[in-house]
Design goal:
Elements (H helix, E strand, L loop, with lengths): L1 E4 L5 H18 L3 E5 L4 E4 L1 H4 L4 H10 L3 E4 L7 E3 L4 E8 L7 H18 L5 E2 L12 E3 L3 E10 L2 E8 L4 H15 L20 H13 L5 E4 L6
Parallel strand pairs: 1-2, 1-11, 3-4
Antiparallel strand pairs: 2-6, 3-5, 6-10, 7-8, 8-9, 9-10
Helix pairs in contact: 3-5, 4-6
């Protein structure tokens, strides 16, 4: 399994790293894992991009100091403050019609085990009116993590976000954005590892989630700065 570490210099280059993971897994048949802290940004989903007030929502993000970007998976807007952790796991597929629920479940369980190791007894589910609502979320004193999936011929990308700290800032920026988009949202639904009294050191969070996603697989580590993006 390939393990990618670090962050590219720009937002566009950083997003290209994860996109390339999916392509390379489809071509090589080798799984890959990446856990990192993306640049400060608001990542809008495809449903957001189709909303009538999308341009206004992007302006709100910029006014609050967050670069607006559009991501390739569905769901709703997610905020990354600079300490927020993202994870991506690409796996080879022989049949795109099967295995989706299993991949969701395996990844969610791996992230849940990471939370436990970090001192947070996270459970499956999410509070009402959470950010980027979905069936595969983890909560404890608010929503801590969400998981999404993208499938293409030959490979699947299971990815997600983990709120480490800055839950107040995330709630503060998402509240006007969701209101602009007409999406129900309760700012009190945003949790974090710090708010749950867990180990909120971003490096420790990255290391723990990576270990749970990799499991017992043999790994080949690549540092983002050592590869072309």
């Amino acid at each position: 399994m390939r393990v990618l570490r670090g962050r590219a210099e720009t937002r566009d280059d950083d997003r290209a790293v994860t996109a390339a993971m999916l392509t390379e897994t489809a071509e090589s048949g080798e799984a890959a894992v990446r856990v990192w802290t993306p640049h400060r940004q608001i990542a809008f989903g495809r449903r957001d991009a189709r909303a009538d007030e999308f341009d206004v929502a992007k302006s709100v993000a910029e006014t609050c100091g967050f670069e607006p970007v559009e991501r390739s998976v569905g769901g709703r807007a997610v905020a990354y403050t600079g300490t927020t952790v993202a994870f991506a796991h690409t796996v080879p597929l022989s049949d795109i019609r099967t295995g989706m629920e299993e991949r969701y479940a395996e990844t969610t369980e791996a992230v849940q085990r990471a939370f436990w190791r970090l001192g947070v007894p996270a459970q499956r589910g999410e509070p009402p009116r959470s950010f980027c609502p979905g069936d595969y979320s983890l909560q404890w004193k608010g929503k801590l993590a969400g998981v999404a999936q993208r499938v293409r011929t030959g490979a699947a990308l299971v990815s997600g976000v983990v709120v480490v700290d800055d839950h107040d800032e995330i709630a503060g920026v998402l509240d006007p954005i969701y209101a602009t988009l007409g999406v129900p949202f309760d700012s009190d639904s945003v949790g974090s590892i710090a708010n749950a009294d867990g180990d909120a050191d971003p490096d420790r969070v990255i290391q723990t989630i990576e270990a749970m996603l990799v499991g017992e697989e043999e790994t080949m580590v690549e540092h983002i700065g050592d590869r072309e993006t």
